[in-house]
Design a protein that fits this description.
Strand order of the largest sheet of chain A: 1-2-3-4-5-6-7-8
CATH superfamily of chain A: Aldolase class I
Largest interface: A-B, 39 and 39 residues
Number of helices of chain A: 11
Radius of gyration of chain A: 18 Å
CATH architecture of chain A: Alpha-Beta Barrel
Number of domains of chain A: 1
Helix content of chain A: 40-55%
Shape of chain A: globular
Low-confidence stretches of chain A: none
Mean pLDDT of chain A: 97
Structural class of chain A: alpha/beta
Order of helices and strands of chain A: EHEHEHEHEHEHEHEHHHH
Number of strands of chain A: 8
Oligomer: homotetramer
């Protein structure tokens, strides 16, 4: 199981055509390019995929497109992100049918005050019980209205036979999660960001779902190989570079900036869906200048 | 316009049958009881209505049920709460078709960091431009992942010809909102909670969407009348009592407690949908004892 | 006891001379003016008094100056705000010697993570045990690094024989505190701001420590009398006006704006001590224009 | 300058005797042990030193004791942590006289709302202008009521000729600070915790002020040497171990747990001053068992 989660994943973005439809062809093109770049796989329908801006029907078509175009050895996690247990199960089952290898479960958060550890564990367990593929819980308070998963809760989740790992996109918590699940060697910890990828890989995690892989997949794969081969001086230097690139893109503005950087690097990026606004021409120019400064293209 | 928003509204809850289906008959019964109690109308599909636990199809059926069973003079606002502009417009148009008098718009929040005032104003304007009934913006950071609407942003919204009011469920902000829109006399301010209802009505607001009206509609209407008739000593005494009752229910646990109190008072409450858990038998007993202590039933 | 806390208090500001020394003469002048205006008394050494910018020696001289110049019936609370239990006791005893009627205790907050309810109760109890005048606990998370006092903790404090009340400057919590201590009729609740003064007085509180009383004492006293006499229509109108004035001053910038408004109204305001910066000339002009707009002076 | 900040520092704790006085002899003993362990120096009067629980007189005596007992090559930073600019300057000058090599400046935070970047820069500049030794700014929002220093503000501080570095104890921000000051090679970045020490040293920082050095100085020095010598596999293994030890102590309860661990390892720990409570006997036993489990002593 862990082998399927070992390596770098793109939390793959969803391109749209000029009239605002999902650009399935563009998506397919991106997948092929990513497969060639050595990515281990994809998180479909995650935050970078603008999950919440897709209809349920579109979600399943996006997932299908990714699965049909991926490499034979590539792994697909599918973001199963709903506020209602019933909808999570219903849609999760559809995702299983389409061939997702794993489901990634973000906690519900609309009724934040009620989301105690017991309620969250029940939610994760209900979904994991009902679906036919293994699940990862997803710790990303920034996308869940401030509802985070404590190391203690993650450890409790690890006792469920069908919850096999955690994707952690929180800040400064990676090692505490790894320590909390040390006694569960089958439970996999995946970094959710370049910011905690180095820590994850060097302290027992298996891989990373890296937003940066959307626009610059090759260098993220390179970092993973350096870490795997324990070439630390080179890994540290490359990691530092990737953190700085990632900060430049993040600072320029979330998914819109990721997509702009994809366009700059020959991938199919395009504009995000409303309410997200695209970068302005000036913002794109500034970002391009920065990325050129990193020698990413000329 | 303001007249249609003058009075007490129930943010009406959605009852479910024992097998977890929407109980449309129970809902109809509740509406009739509320109409008889003197409520001015309903917020359909709000937080108390477990909006996020209903499919889009169910949402429209719930709205239809409310509209078909309401009194002739009653007003229906419909909660239009989606993360994507396109879905808000699509579903908002369906709600208009079903006869909603107003749409209530909660800000998107998944990409919280990107939700600047400019992005939010664009979102509200895009929806208000596209739909055929007037819109209220909805300030409830507790349900929007911490994304609140500042008095300044609300004032900017008030310049849009089809944004006619705000429902404010925030804490301690009511007067600042009223001051901010003082120069826009057509713009209506509605309290979103018993906690700011007294302040709203005495300082220029028009009405209130009161969770408490779900379980004890008569006393909320009574408070409104006392305020309308400027019977302040009686209003202050009743307001204090309602705040304490409201605190007892809120402290017992959100929507689940509202529904339990409805059951105790002869309305169709029932259990919430998962991930929300119902009150335990012990919690129900404790709540019942408290509510009896307030003399609400015997 | 409660009688001594019934009415309006100024959280009196500390004027400084042009060379940055405490202006004790100016302070004495202000006290006489306030006494004539009908204030019930003072909170010396509170937040508006720039407590943290005074040396311990200056603190005691400021307290002495206030006590020597106050009216015979006026009450003086003294802000006893330190991070260490020992220093709170040592300085609290000095304040008692100078004639303070009450001590007001803000919770320590430097080690916020350790400030559990048990630790805070122990702190308040240790100080209240050691000093010779009754104590009020002070709920103002905005000045205590986010450390607030829950209604439950306040209720526990009320069991201490020498903790006789609470000053609440939090937002939207007034009624919950009043409900929590309802069974302790000797325990006094004082509003810490115009924002919760109306609620306090109408629901069982005794008075208010109002920043606004620093610059415009007469109208705050007038509001209290209207409330005492249950002249509610007039009280509501005046309260609304005061809230708007208070917002104008607060929005212009904290203590610096309070002091600027004092200067405009013939009191001795002056500049705050660094790190606080005074208002710029432009900011003062804008504030003056607003306050003139409220008809406060011409 | 940077050389003096290269290595591991203890944010040295302040021992107290059973009757609550500062135990200067115990402090001297600890300093000698730390010097022998290879620590580069000390942060006197920091958070672990219970700065806020010492009188100003005690602060200076603590500083003197440390300076008189330190090794000839050891560096002493002195925590200059006050809410008022004047007191920071006055006490900062005293610290300079006693021989502090650097002052470490935490931002004021009582008037949090007023603490804009401009006000903070003015504060840091005023102090740095007035004192005779170089200053570091100290980014620790957890101890400053939530007032943090953004990378942008830190970069602005770096332009001041007498602000020569930053001590960063925030979470997940280390690389962003390093990137922000990359163009100021003389500006030194020091980690404030084991949590960001590895990142600091591998990406351009000079040293670390490590709470863990209070109880287990030798292993923190060992980690620094491994990093200096680029023995990364060993450094990663040891770093992981130290993070886990640090988590065990931190989880057991702040300064009280640090002191208990010091006692267990033959240093002079003792109890913290009130309001901090010592660990209970049970908590000490549990911590001791954990630390034995790490093989730190037998």
């Amino acid at each position: 199981m862990e082998k399927k989660l070992t390596g770098v994943f793109a939390p793959i973005s969803t391109p749209f055509t000029h009239d605002g439809q999902v650009d399935y062809e563009g998506l397919a093109k991106n997948v092929k390019r990513y497969a060639a770049a050595g990515l281990k796989g994809y998180l479909a329908l995650g935050s970078n995929g603008e999950n919440k801006s897709l209809s349920n029907k579109e979600k399943l078509l996006v997932l299908e497109t990714i699965i049909q175009n991926k490499g034979a050895d590539q792994t697909v996690m599918s973001g199963c992100i709903f506020e209602s247990t019933a909808e999570s199960i219903e849609m999760g089952l559809e995702m299983c049918k389409r061939g997702a290898d794993f489901l990634t479960l973000l906690p519900p958060c609309y009724f934040k005050k009620q989301m105690t550890d017991d309620v969250l564990l029940r939610y994760f367990s209900d979904v994991a019980d009902a679906v036919s593929v293994p699940c990862l819980v997803y710790n990303a308070p920034q996308y869940a209205g401030g509802v985070g998963l404590s190391p203690k809760l993650i450890r409790r989740c690890a006792d469920h036979p069908n919850i096999v790992g955690v994707k952690d996109s929180s800040t400064g918590n990676m090692e505490n999660i790894l320590f909390a699940v040390k006694d569960k060697p089958g439970f996999t910890v995946v970094a959710g960001s370049v910011n905690n990828f180095f820590a994850a890989i060097t302290m027992g995690g298996s891989g990373g779902v890296l937003s940066l892989a959307n626009s610059f997949p090759e260098i993220t794969v390179e970092l993973f190989h350096l870490l795997e081969e324990k070439k630390y001086p080179e890994a540290i230097a490359l990691n530092t570079r990737l953190l700085e690139i990632n900060r430049a893109i993040g600072g320029a503005g979330g998914v819109a900036a990721v997509k702009a950087a994809m366009d700059m690097n020959g991938l199919v990026g395009g504009d995000p869906r409303l309410p997200l606004l695209p970068l302005t021409a000036e913002e794109k120019e500034a970002l391009e200048a920065k990325l050129k400064g990193f020698g990413l293209f000329s």
